[in-house]
Write a structure and sequence with these properties.
With 225 residues, the protein is α/β, with parallel strands linked by helices. The protein has 6 helices and 13 strands. The strands form 2 sheets. Strands 6-5-4-3-2-1-13 form a 7-stranded mixed β-sheet, with helices on one face. Helix 4 packs parallel to helix 5 and helix 5 crosses helix 6. The structure holds nickel (II) ion and manganese (II) ion.
Length: 225
Amino acid sequence: MRLRYFSHSACQITTDDNIKILIDPFLDNNPTSPVKSKDVDADFIILSHAHGDHTGDSESIAKRCGSTFICVNELANYYAEKGFEVHNMHIGGSHKFSFGKVKFTIAHHGSVTNDSVYGGEPAGIIINSCGKTIYHTGDTGLFLDMKLIGEMNKIDYMLLPIGDNFTMGIDDAIKAVEFVKPSIAIPIHYNTFPVIEANPEEFREKAAKIGFKVRVLEFGEEIEL
Ligand code: NI
Ligand code: MN
């Protein structure tokens, strides 16, 4: 299985049998993504919430690829009304797809589309696929239930925001890593805009001091999980 990080919260998981899953594909208007929407394909698009810096190019990609949206009920209905294939879920629920299992967790944030439609509750995403467990927290502040998430799931890779202002900053993200105890933490949602500037090396060093491993991915980099 491979993970490609585009920058911001956008990434792609490609399974061993070549199923492509995009998460929060904000590419064309993302000043830091070296990859644009025309260059990516998706069988599934998972959205953490409805903000434009997460829904991004979902519609154009889904139109071209016939992708299925996986999101919380309200946001899934929004895309269903536009004629897209959707799978409605909600927080606390999990479902087994062709590529593996998806579970939505809580996230403390907002969720409204660019055209002011309420997108339901924002979510974090836990994916079990190809023997690995990935926790993409979505946009969120720090919350104590992350401890429970870490207790109930052996998280191999945790993708979490460090950019502050709209989400956790570095110090809260360190506490989140302490709660979840992932094998590897990957910082996201930073340096896209001036207001969320953060140094991922500072995050890496602070995590190392308390015994946790951080892997900082280049924007556009793909790694084998
Ligand atoms: Ni947001
Ligand atoms: Mn965001």
